[in-house]
Amino acid sequence: MVRRLYTFGCSFTQYFWPTWADILGQEFDYYENWGKLGGGNQFIFNSIIECSLRNKLTPNDTVAIMWTNVTREDRYIKLS
């Protein structure tokens, strides 16, 4: 069985250099880092749902979540 890891969070999870998620990912056969710089808790939650739907997560998969500060806001902005 392939051991899969999916990680979620803000810049502490995905940054320009390796983070805790990248180090942990070395211990698994397959690894995806869904973290994003500036991501708030709403973004993290929505990423977990999207990942689950796309990858058909099972009880055998490992999911690691690093929630961000509660004062961080997620905002949708229109880019022109």
Give me the count of strands. Answer: 3
Mean pLDDT over all positions? 95
Q: What is the N-to-C order of secondary-structure elements (H for helix, E for strand)?
A: EHEHE
Distance between termini?
46 Å
- CA radius of gyration is 13 Å
**Helix fraction by DSSP (H/I, runs of at least 4):** 25-40%
The number of helical runs is 2
Assembly type = single chain
Low-confidence segments, ≥5 residues, pLDDT <50? none
Give the overall form: globular
Largest sheet: 3 strands, parallel
Strand order of the largest sheet: 2-1-3
Portion of residues in beta strands equals: 15-25%
* Structural class category: alpha/beta
SSE topology sketch:
Layout (H helix, E strand, L loop, with lengths): L3 E5 L11 H6 L4 E4 L7 H15 L6 E4 L15
